[in-house]
Design goal:
With about 190 residues, the chain is an alpha/beta fold. The chain has two domains: about 1-45, Helicase, Ruva Protein, domain 3 (Orthogonal Bundle), CATH 1.10.8; about 75-185, Dna Topoisomerase Vi A Subunit, Chain: A, domain 2. It contains seven helices and seven strands, in the order αααβββαβαβαβαβ. The strands form two sheets. The chain has a five-stranded mixed sheet. A hairpin with a 6-residue loop joins β1 and β2 (about 60-65). α1 crosses α2 (about 20-35) and α4 crosses α7 (about 175-180). It is elongated and about 65 Å long. It starts with a helix and ends with a strand. Bound molecules: zinc ion (ZN).
Length: about 190
């Protein structure tokens, strides 16, 4: 309907976000059109995220500052968990099972390897945990990373069972993830 052009535009944008199909997008758009006060609160929250949130220069986590509060905390353990996304950091932090540092790695390249080497040096990291959900592709990624960092005199470990193969962390219950980190094994 031409008369609903603005709502249709909103539905289209909402559909571009993860886990939102046409049905949910339409429901959301209609609810925002109905409750203008809530819609304005959403606009305000979005503006805050756009102007205040940036990627931490050291680890790639989201932060309100150039350096996130985890990288900025010298009291954390000298362990580095390599994860796939800032969402994984949130999940692991929520599990309370880990008190080291993180690095968000989407794909391996020379720049990322240099960044990881710098963290190892600056934070005196003794152990690297590959905190990827287990699957063939991630195993290859761990092996490649281990090879690139093998001269640095650090231990490598892999999160243990408890995280089912191929399942993303956000779909794993917190207890399983906490157990998987505690029971990590050396590789
Ligand atoms: Zn950071």
């Amino acid at each position: 309907m031409k008369d609903l052009k603005s709502i249709n535009q909103l539905v289209e944008i909402l559909q571009e976000f993860p886990s939102i199909g046409k049905k949910s997008a339409t429901r959301l758009a209609l609810s925002l059109a109905k409750d203008k006060f809530k819609a304005l609160k959403l606009v305000n929250a979005l503006e805050n995220v756009i102007s205040n949130i940036q990627e931490c220069k050291i680890c790639g986590n989201f932060s309100e500052h150039e350096i996130c509060e985890i990288c900025d905390n010298p009291m954390r353990e000298k362990i580095l968990a390599i994860v796939e996304s800032p969402k994984d950091i949130m999940t692991i932090e929520e599990s309370g099972s880990y008190n080291g540092y993180y690095f968000v790695l989407t794909r391996i390249n020379d720049e990322k390897i240099e960044q990881i080497k710098n963290i190892i040096k600056e934070k005196q990291i003794k152990e690297i945990i590959f905190a990827f959900p287990p699957c063939v592709e991630n195993e290859a990624k761990s092996l490649l990373l281990e090879d690139k960092l093998k001269d640095l005199n650090i231990e490598f470990s892999q999160i243990a069972q408890g995280v089912p193969t191929g399942v993303h962390f956000e779909n794993v219950d917190i207890n399983s993830l906490a157990k998987a980190i505690k029971l990590r094994f050396k590789i």
